[in-house]
Amino acid sequence: MVINMFQAALLGLFACLASMPGMGGTSIGNYTLGRPLVAGLVVGIILGDVTDGILVGMAIQVVYIALVTPGGTVSADVRAACYIGIPLALIAVKAQGLDAGSTEAAALATSLGATCGTLGAILFYGTATINLAWQAMGWKWLEKGDTHKLYLVDMVLPWISHIICSFLPTFLLVYFGGDAVNNLLASLPMDGVPMKTLFAVGSLLPCVGIAILLKQVITKATDFLPFFFGFTLAAVMGCNLIAASAIACFFALINYEITSLRLKLDKVSAAGPALSAASDDDEEEDI
């Protein structure tokens, strides 16, 4: 697979859009275009291989499934993992002749994606640093009363930051990096220690993403049961995500009905002594 200049430019553009708050807020930009699963579709369309793009995006998505950035602290840049890691992973998978849905391809994709994501953190902080200059200009305009110029700070000037720290790195790495990946993998035999190590490390990375997610949602031991039940549906009954989601909605409805009934019973129980006391007062008055 060879990435031409036009494809590299499109990938660089989507790398900018994935991190631009102006793209309908972070909902459309960061939390949609910037997710590996969605980016896999976008990259697949641009490179002409939608199926493999989505499969590679799925593998990388598991690694970053629970990534959060509290207070702007970023350990990895998902934008780089998406629009640099996924194209390079596709090239690597094609170069090795692997099936994109295989375990080996997923391990290779997660390794490259995680590497790009970690290096991309530098790009994230570079963007934030350049944006400080635009904010300083905005404060000066605000002090002078030129409030109409604040739109430049929000919608126009940040494009300069993203062109420097998103578009250009993505364009250069995916355009020139493909040959480097091909040459590197060509020099490493599949049964050699380097490739086996890469596959082993890549296979462990999804466990890290799932472990972080569990740490956020598990508060007691019984919370593991729904988690394991979902894996049981997929492994034993062969349910896909849509079927598992439908079953989950059914159980969520049952849980909602039980919880609502319990709350009603608690209210009746709490009101019982008060009603009993009022009844006793009425009887005493009648006597």
Task: Name some characteristics of this structure.
287 residues, mainly alpha, flat
Q: How would you describe the overall organization of this protein?
A:
- With 287 residues, the protein is mainly alpha-helical.
- 78% of the residues lie in helices and 0% in strands.
- The chain is built from 11 helices and no strands.
- It has helices spanning 5-17, 29-33, 36-47, 50-63, 78-96, 103-144, 150-156, 158-186, 193-217, 224-235, 241-286.
- α4 (50-63) packs across α9 and α5 (78-96) packs parallel to α8 (158-186).
What is this structure's SSE topology?
Layout: H1 5-17, H2 29-33, H3 36-47, H4 50-63, H5 78-96, H6 103-144, H7 150-156, H8 158-186, H9 193-217, H10 224-235, H11 241-286
Helix pairs in contact: 1-3, 1-5, 1-8, 3-4, 3-5, 4-5, 4-6, 4-9, 5-6, 5-8, 6-8, 6-9
